[in-house]
Amino acid sequence: MFSRAYRLAVSLPPVLWVGMFLLVPYALLFCYSFWTVSAQQAIVHSWMLDNYRQLVRVNIYWQTLLRSMWIAARVMVFSLLLAFPLAYFLSFHATRRKDLFYQLAIIPLWVSYLVRAYAWKTILGSDGVLNTLLQYAHLTTHPLAFLLYSPFAVVLTLTHIYTPFTFLPVYSALERIPRNLVEASHDLGASQWQTFWRVIFPLSLPGVLAGATFAFVLALGDFLAPLLLGGPSGIMISNIVVSLFGAAYNWPLGSAISFCMLLLVLTLLFFSEKLEKRWSVQ
Amino acid sequence: MSGSAPIKKFGSNQSPWLGCVAGAVFAFLYLPILTLIVYSFNGSGVGGFPPHNLTLGWYRILFADDAIWSAVGNSLIVAIAAMIIALAFGIPAALALDRADFPGKALFRRLVLLPLILPGIITGLSLLMLFREADLRLSLLTVILGHGTALISVATTEVFAGLQNFDRAQEEASLDLGANHWQTFWRITVPNLRLSIIGAALLIFTLSLDEIAVSFFLIGRENTLPLEIWGRLRRGITPEINAISTIIFIFSLVAILVWYRLRTGGHRSGNIGAEMGTAGVQV
Q: What are the residue ranges spanned by the domains of chain B?
């Protein structure tokens, strides 16, 4: 029913814009990753694998990448551990007030990243709310130093930030589970525990997978929380990229690292989508 | 939504600890923000327990702080312009994904939605390189282009979701009765998608106001509000930042509640926002 002109009119402008401002920049990132910087700090358009070779050879790069993945993995696990029970409670047990609880769960999703990261900074500092509270309650005599400027602070803050992202897909997967399946399981004599592990949990896996992917990918690329709360031991791969694009002025090397991150993310998305499709087949 | 009777039956013998766990998760999500708000009234600075000397003094200082307010002005300009760009391209993009077939459509769909899941740093850096190659000086304009482009994803997912609950027969009737595509778009399609479009606009506006990762790379001399706050955080923390954070929080809260009302008014489903949640993987 839609004419050729209509279809062209709705698809051409966004395709051109997205090509110009997303596809070209990502391609440019790829090109930059082969270039080098001359002694005069000019970009040399030579097509070499030097930057990638450096990534493998210089320990700090791949070690930081591994540490970032380890931080992201912990954020993913903790986000799931918090988001799943919440989503399960909302979907299956919150009969009254379900709507209110749902709103409460998604509000933090749209509340400023910076506000939430800053809140943790004021809580975890050595004169912060938590340390002074612990001393006020006579639980400690000295401020606990490990709270701020540590990987712990980064994991805690990122978990706080990405738990609502994880909650959404898990909750929508749980909501899609046909309730008569659950009822049937009960009628056939399964206990609540059995019903959960044999019916509900397997059916929720696509959502769990989507949530896990979200938390991992977004945490992996984060550079603001490590700068704010991480200290020297909480540095992540994106912080190295930021410094390469700033003071260190080596855009090509920074691009090579970013491109590896991009590839890693796309690979994860690809496999997560594959698995999700397989698990969704009933 | 499924009926409530089976849920009740299943949930009738619920264990109380599950509710406790859910309560604890909510506490984890909200206590830090509450703490932040409480300490914005604390006379003796950030930290120190219990808070004392409650005062509105930090808000008074905040309201006299010109740098903050000019940053707020910049952020509003960026958010409004980004909203216009994202809607101008996001609405047609959703229509295209819904109704048109063209070569590279699958790639286009992935590309449009990618900024939703990709860490902001990659989008920010790539655009920085584009602007450098194009010799475009960094300014609010580059931030606007960055936000607009990244947030097309939000407009597209929201409007695409709206299109799925949309009866095409009306458009068909309009065309049969002699209206052209342009008239049909403005008189039938847009009014029917009204709630999705307003919801998308609100979300884009809020997200742009809060955005920091992309702006970080594309900012010129004039700061947006999050970057102004960021700059101050590096120098140390004062309750003035708590005060502005509190105001930002309340603003986001209002915007999100309005968005939620719009969405639940649009199609009575307890499952909204799910498209956003799984957009990167599913739409």
A: 13-55, 66-282
Among A68-82, B110-124, B140-154, which stretch is predicted with the lowest mean pLDDT? B110-124
* A182 located within any domain: yes
CATH number, domain with residue A215: 1.10.3720.10
pLDDT of A238 over the 90 cut: yes
Residues of B in contact with A278 (CB under 8 A): none
pLDDT tens-digit readout, A8-32: 888 999 999 999 999 999 999 999 9
Residues with Cβ within 8 Å of residue A211, at least 6 apart in sequence: A79, A80, A83, A165, A166, A167, A168, A169, A170, B277
Q: What is the DSSP string of A210-249?
A: HHHHHHHHHHHT--HHIIIIITGGG--HHHHHHHHHTTT-
Identity of the residue in B25, B102, B175 whose CB atom sits nearest the CB atom of A85: B25
For B1, the token pair is 């939504």
Contacts of B256 in chain A (CB under 8 A): 106-107, 110-111
Please state, in angstroms and rounded to a whole number, the distance separating the CA atoms of residues A188 and B92: 50
Quick one: pLDDT at residue B265?
65
Contact between chains at B96 and A7 (C-beta distance less than 8 A): yes
Report the percentage of chain A scoring pLDDT > 70. 99
What tokens appear for B222 in the block? 């004039």
Dihedral (Cα; B68, B72, B77, B83), 10-degree rounding: 140
Q: Which of A34-38, A154-158, A209-213, A260-264 has the lowest mean pLDDT?
A: A34-38
Q: Cα separation of B95 and A118, whole Å?
A: 39
Query: Residue-wise over A57-71: b if at least 16 C-beta within 10 A, else e?
Result: eeeebeebbebbbeb
Q: Which overall architecture, per CATH, does domain B66-282 show?
A: Orthogonal Bundle (1.10)
Query: For residue A126, what are its two tokens?
Result: 């050595």
Global ipTM:
0.89
Contact A2, B99 (CB under 8 A): yes
B90 CA: distance to closest CA in chain A (Å): 7
Residue A224 lies in a domain: yes
Q: How many CB pairs under 8 A join A and B?
A: 324
Q: What residues of B are in contact with residue A25 (Cβ under 8 Å)?
A: 123, 126-127, 129-130
Chain B residue numbers with beta carbons less than 8 Å from the beta carbon of A96 are none
User: Distance between CA atoms of B143 and B195, rounded to whole angstroms?
Assistant: 27
Residue A192: give the domain boundaries. 61-280
**Count of domains observed in chain A:** 1
Residue B96, both tokens: 């295209």
A55 domain-assigned: no
Q: What is the pLDDT of residues B32-54, one digit of tens each?
A: 999 888 888 887 777 677 777 78
